[in-house]
Write a structure and sequence with these properties.
heterodimer, A: 756 residues, alpha+beta, five-stranded antiparallel sheet, four-stranded antiparallel sheet, 33 strands, B: 433 residues, mainly beta, five-stranded mixed sheet, 3 helices, 45% strand, WD repeat (chain A)
């Protein structure tokens, strides 16, 4: 085991332990070690070296003391003569041993010599030593002293059987020592026995390694124990002479440093006195020069005076700072690929990114470079002139603003798919009407034909051909009187459909008989004339103006016709049974558009261009109610079978629902069609209503009216019915009287039936 | 099992069995077939097996059943869908495919053919929008013309065909009347004989939509747009006697004296809208379908409805048949053919729904002998043959080029149909065992 050489002291202590272990093995072995100790003692420079322990340890070897003393002198003399001649002295020792046994003494010296030679030329050896040096660091720390007796003289245990205590507190018993003869014999047998020394402290035999013996030898020569120790290393001046933050000395600050200088005070008093006397003149500090007008800080946010001046000070909006992608020469990852650019093209314009990063080699090649100055001027101008208003933002979920409507599924049945088409007309179908049972449907077209269709199969049952385009067809609401009223141009026809049974046919024939047309009353003579129609055996009523709309009274006897004429001449009532015509007993303001009989009471609704008036037929006088639609031009009306709710369609695509118990203003206005609404319809029994428009669609709504007066009607859009060709749109729609089906008449000359 | 082919197509061991007679039989050996074959593949396999035994064999389409269900997808998918193990040997029953093999000449009418009836194997009865009923002994040969109606005929029924001598038929018309005709079906067919009604049944207030006869032939029932079902006696009133048929045979247009008028025996009231179709399958039970979205079963004795199924759609046609003649099939104002089983308690949901049509269903008829087969005709111009064992149509007959208004089975293996193209068409050679 070798000890690392850090300084002289440690080496000394290492040697010390060695020297302690030197005691009492054999005389010959101890002698050189003792000599070494002496050498160290002499050559050692450290004043801390404690020679007592050594002497103590030496003292422990009582039995050899005499020999030691005698030999000490010899060795001392030898070293004094020649410090580096340790080897020769050892040789002497060996020779001395050889005096005991002269035969093998030479061998021993040879051995050492050979060792020395090995050391001198063996580079391998050196590397071995280095390794050993490296290892030593940890081994020294790890191996705890076995004997924990402490720093007490070992001779205290001289008479004891133990030498100390191990770490667990057990006694370390002394081993039996070889007697001198045995040790001598052993040294004779083993040439390396001289290396063995006894560690007295731990009471064990230690064999010195080659390195250790070399180290001992170097020490004997007065050299540093390790060969690689450089005693003349360059001096490194670790102290920095530059100023350090902490004082080098920790001495307290002297008192003088805190006491004002009397001399200085005297000098100040002197100066003050002189200034007072005017002997010394002091310059007044110069005032700062007045600056020009202070610039108005336009963007200096939240200056207090600005806040005070204006009640609503609006801080300028904070803009997002430009990022890398807005650079004129962004890095490649910001540049969109061709595919991405193509995908931008497909995007909706508002969703498209505002800025697509592009690369320019230099600023000057940016297209905006030319206008940069002008633009920045304009920007400044904009900032200067822009009016700013406070925008109130409300954070509301847009979904929550939608009215809570029941699901469409729960509102079935309603018409949604077209299965049947009624084809045969050659012109746009302008008007349709179903009979009261729902077995037949009549239609009028611009080609001048009126047709009756079988609803179930789509078969055309009857055709009447006229010269003029048909404006309006209306089936008599009475099932016992299957008569069709047809309006075209200035004429109104009553046609016998011949669908009733024989008795009904008799009644109709009697009614249509040409002979019994009475003379018209003078009041209406200028407006209408009753004629008999030869062609189809019906009755023809010629009006003084073109008819725009007709409506049957629910009892099937009265029919109102509307002409575009003011005052009392615009609407006339025909009575079929008496073949009489009468004017309305009141004046109508504006040009009437269409009329509608109340489904149960004797009221009539007259729609003019902008509003709807309700008149009582039994009382003369003013309108009982005026409904303000707020629409530009009314096109059609339909009334809920309950009679309290009216639907009005307008030519601007709006539809109004009036609850007449509620107000004269619309309860709901639905803006659904982009083009004119041509007609509106309400189902007789199902809670459905519909509108059709020139945009060739028909909308179906759920419109439930509750008996409870406190509950407002429920309106739910259900379905958009498409199918008619775009050109011309849908001109009329009617519900089937008993099924939740909707008939639509298109300008494409087809009537469609939409079923549930 | 071969390992290489496993990922491409697994092989199944199947055994073909049949209830068909000898020329159709194949040896009862199990064969290994790829699992991805469809009906067509199976059919060609069976055909080739038969052909190996019988060189004169003509290829014949087959249909295949596994556990009573028709295969309408690849075998693999079928087994997966039904959860049948592919490990054991499968037993596949094959039947002759139900599909028309031959199309007869169309029989042209003067107007839309609104009604056809094939309940008598001797002739086909048709009704037409020109108000005439026609009797066809075969395709293209009209033996009798039944005249007298002033409106379109909406429905025809054979009242009594068992009598070899004369046959009684009933026609319903949109002129609110029904007429009963008698004629000799075995008469020579050189030229069509004109027949006038021996009895006119008046009483409906609106168009009569449907007529159906009791099995015994004593009574007919009719349904109408006036929401009622009327029952009528078919026997001649006593005064006329047996001479009337003779008179009719001579009789031309002046047969007014020979005609008797009948009045409704009973009226069944309950429907709230047009009763579009009636059938009278048993002695005292009448089924009716109406536009008020209901199917009702009437007890003739009491005149009350004993069953009321709500459908949700306006119905155009009804027929009763199938297993135990108890299933109700009805179609109407949507493309779905529905089949109810009224024996199932507590539910009014249909047990089968067939929805391959694309427009209103105008007619549906059960096959008279098979429990599984029925046909449906639709305004989309198609007639579809259905098997209850699969949700796909067995066969689609697309011979009409306009709406099909009526269709029926004839002689068990023909489908007759009339439509808005004014033709009576006969699709024959349908093999239903």
């Amino acid at each position: 085991m070798t000890k690392k050489s850090k300084g002289g002291k440690e080496d000394k202590t290492a040697i010390e332990t060695k020297s302690k272990s030197v005691s009492g093995k054999s005389q010959k072995q101890k002698k050189p070690v003792e000599k070494e100790e002496e050498l160290i003692q002499e050559s050692g420079t450290d004043s801390d070296y404690d020679g007592d322990s050594l002497s103590g340890s030496l003292n422990s070897d009582d039995f050899d003391s005499d020999i030691f003393e005698s030999e000490d002198d010899v060795t001392q003399g030898g070293t004094e003569e020649d410090g580096g001649d340790g080897e020769s002295s050892q040789d002497e020792l060996l020779d001395h041993e050889g005096s005991i046994d002269s035969e093998d003494g030479d061998d021993g010296s040879e051995q050492i010599d050979s060792d020395n030679i090995e050391e001198e030329d063996g580079s391998d050896e050196a590397s071995d030593r280095d390794e050993a040096v490296e290892e030593s660091d940890s081994s020294e720390d790890e191996v705890a002293p076995r004997n924990t007796v402490g720093d007490v003289p070992l001779n205290w245990y001289k008479d004891e059987k133990h030498i100390g205590y191990d770490i667990t507190g057990k006694k370390i018993t002394k081993k039996e020592r070889q007697d001198k003869l045995d040790s001598f014999l052993a040294s004779m047998d083993d040439s390396k026995n001289w290396r063995k020394i006894i560690d007295d402290y731990n009471d064990e035999e230690v064999e010195l390694t080659k390195e250790e013996s070399k180290m001992v030898r170097r020490l004997l020569k007065g050299q540093a124990p390790h060969a690689d120790f450089d005693p003349y290393a360059d001096y490194v001046d670790w102290f920095k002479w530059t100023d350090a933050i902490h004082p080098l000395s920790s001495a307290p600050e002297p008192k003088r440093r805190f006491i004002p200088s009397i001399w200085e005070a005297k000098k100040v008093v002197k100066l003050v006195r002189r200034i007072r006397m005017g002997l010394i003149k002091v310059k007044k500090p110069e005032e700062e020069p007045e600056e020009g007008p202070v610039p108005y800080l336009l963007w200096d946010a939240l200056t207090s005076d600005q806040k005070n001046k204006h009640l609503t000070y609006i801080p300028p909006p904070k803009l997002k700072l430009p990022g890398h992608e807005e650079s004129y020469n962004p890095s490649l990852e910001y540049i969109p690929t061709e595919e991405e650019k193509a995908s931008y093209e497909l995007m909706f314009e508002e969703d498209r990114p505002k800025l697509i990063p592009t690369r320019f080699t230099c600023l000057r090649s940016i297209p905006a470079y030319e206008n940069a100055l002008k633009e920045s001027f304009e920007r400044c101008l904009d900032l200067y002139l822009c009016p700013r208003i406070r925008k109130k933002r409300i954070n509301i979920d847009p979904e929550s603003l939608k009215p809570k409507l029941p699901s469409r599924k729960d509102l079935r049945p309603y018409p949604n798919s077209c299965y049947l088409e009624y084809k045969g007309h050659t012109g746009a179908v302008t008007s349709i009407s179903t009979d009261s049972s729902g077995q037949w449907i009549a239609s009028g077209s611009t080609d001048g034909s009126v047709r009756i269709w079988e609803v179930e199969t789509g078969r055309c049952l009857k055709v009447w051909q006229f010269d003029e385009a048909i404006k309006f067809v209306a089936w008599n609401p009475l099932s016992s009187l299957p008569v069709l009223a047809i309006a075209m141009g200035r004429d109104l026809f009553f046609l016998n459909t011949e669908l009733g049974n024989d008795e009904e046919q008799e009644v109709i024939k009697e009614m249509f008989h040409s002979g019994n047309i009475p003379e018209p009353e003078a009041s209406v003579a200028a407006i209408v004339t009753w004629l008999s129609d030869e062609l189809y055996g019906g009755i023809k009523i010629r009006h003084f103006k073109n008819i725009s709309s007709i409506d049957w009274h629910r009892k099937g006897d009265y029919l109102s016709t509307v002409m575009a004429s003011g005052e009392t001449r615009g609407v006339v009532l025909h009575q079929l049974s008496k073949k009489k015509t009468q004017r309305l007993p009141f004046k109508i303001r504006g040009l009437p558009v269409c009329t509608l009989f109340h489904p149960s009471l004797s009221y009539i609704f007259v729609a003019t261009r902008k509003d709807v008036r309700v008149y009582n037929l039994l009382k003369t006088g003013l309108a009982t109610k005026k409904l303000e639609t707020g629409m530009r031009e009314i096109s059609s009306m339909a009334i809920h079978p309950g009679g309290d709710n009216l639907i009005v369609g307008s030519k601007e695509g709006k539809m109004c629902w009036f609850d007449m118990d509620l107000s004269s203003k619309p309860y709901k206005t639905l803006k659904n069609h982009p083009k004119d609404i041509t007609n509106v319809a309400v189902h007789r029994s199902y809670p459905l209503f519909a509108s059709c428009s020139e945009d060739s669609t028909a909308y179906v709504f759920h419109g439930k009216v509750y008996n409870d007066l406190n509950q407002n009607p429920l309106i739910v859009p259900l379905e958009i019915l498409r199918g008619h060709s775009i050109k011309g749109g849908v001109l009329d729609c009617k519900f089937h009287p008993r099924q939740p089906w909707l008939f639509t008449a298109g300008a494409d000359s087809i009537i469609k039936l939409y079923c549930h | 099992m071969d390992v290489d082919g496993e990922d491409v197509s697994r092989r199944l061991h199947v055994k073909f069995v049949t209830k068909l007679d000898s020329p159709f039989k194949v040896p009862v050996n199990s064969v290994a077939i790829p699992s991805n074959v469809t009906r067509l593949g199976l059919s060609s396999i069976v055909n080739s097996i038969i052909q190996s035994d019988n060189p004169e064999w003509k290829t014949e389409p087959f249909d295949f059943l596994i556990d009573g269900e028709l295969i309408r997808m690849s075998l693999e998918e079928f087994l997966l869908a039904k959860g049948i193990s592919a490990e054991r040997t499968l037993e596949i029953e094959y039947i002759r495919a139900v599909t028309p093999r031959k199309e007869e000449e169309p029989s042209l009418h003067d107007d839309w053919v609104s009604a056809v009836n094939g309940s008598s194997p001797r002739f086909i009865l048709t009704g037409c929008y020109d108000g005439l009923g026609r009797v066809w002994s075969s395709a293209g040969s009209c033996s009798h013309i039944l005249e007298g109606h002033s409106g379109a005929i909406s429905s025809v029924a054979v009242v009594n065909s068992k009598d070899a001598e004369t046959v009684t038929v009933a026609t319903a018309s949109k002129d609110r009347t029904l007429r009963l005709f008698k004629f000799d079906a075995d008469e020579s067919v050189d030229s069509s004989t004109r027949v006038t009604a021996y009895k006119i049944l008046r009483g409906h207030k609106a168009s009569v939509q449907s007529v159906s006869a009791q099995k015994s032939g004593d009574m007919v029932c009719s349904s109408s747009w006036d929401c009622t079902i009327n029952l009528w006696n078919t026997n001649q009133s006593t005064s006329e006697g047996e001479s009337v048929p003779l008179k009719k045979r001579k009789g031309n247009n002046q047969a007014d004296e020979s005609q008797s008028e009948g009045e409704a025996v009973t009226t069944l009231v309950g429907h709230t809208q047009c009763v579009s179709s009636v059938v009278w399958p048993e002695h005292d039970v009448i089924y009716s379908a109406s536009w008020d979205h209901s199917v009702r079963r009437w007890d003739v004795e009491t005149g009350k409805d004993s069953l009321n199924l709500f459908c949700g759609k306006a119905l155009n046609t009804i027929d009763v048949g199938g297993e135990g003649s108890a299933l109700i099939a009805a179609g109407g104002s949507d493309p779905i053919l529905r089949v109810w089983d009224p024996r199932k308690p507590g539910t009014s949901a249909p047990v089968f729904q067939f929805s391959s049509h694309s427009s209103w269903i105008s007619a549906c008829k059960w096959h008279r002998s098979s429990w599984y087969h029925l046909l449906s005709a639709s305004y989309d111009g198609k007639i579809m043959l259905w098997d209850l064992r699969t949700a796909w149509p067995l066969s689609i007959i697309e011979t009409h080029n306009d709406k099909v208004l009526s269709a029926d089975w004839w002689k068990g293996e023909n489908v007759i149909s009339g439509g808005a193209d004014s033709n009576l068409r006969i699709s024959s050679g349908i093999a239903i065992s």
